[in-house]
Amino acid sequence: MAFGDLKTEKGVKALNDYLADRSYIEGYEPSQADVTTFKALGKAPASSHPHALRWYNHINSFGSETSKFPSASSAAPVADSKPVPADDDDDDVDLFGSDDEEDEAAEKIKQERIKAYSEKKSKKPALIPKSSIVLDVKPWDDETNMEEMEKSVRTITCEGLIWGQSKFVPLAYGIKKLQIGCVIEDDKVSVDWLTEEIQNFEDLVQSIDIAAFNKI
Fold it and tell me: What pLDDT does residue 76 have?
């Protein structure tokens, strides 16, 4: 917030640019920093510097009350009264300070949120892909022992296979089919494997159809 010599046009311009989006020299209320800068300025800026003029008139309106302004949090943003050398460019004027500390704080908050989300997500149980299947197991003829057929089918067991309800459904000429449901874990049980295992009961099973297949 070094404005240079406020008795020069360059110093007043630096002050005007600084006050373009600020009401006071420091913070959000008048302080002794405003008083110091006001005294260093000495007179109202020209209308060509509207932001500095607005600020000057505002501080001037307080009159003797300026002595009650709180202390500045840092040294007044006014350089010594020596004129700034003509060859001194604006690269040395830091009007806004560094955002490094704010950036570091924002990044820290971001990383903490990412960590919390990752931990929460890791605690969720993994979803196991499963399928619900209804099989139609057909016998050779009406003399096939259907109860034995069902019992044989249910002897097929493995990890990821759960047998469900079953029933005998009439087909024709007194022949019935076994309609049986099951749930399988897709990563552990293959439908082709299951149907082949059932087909191995060749004395009882003539054919197998998949009546229904649903992912769950």
Answer: 42
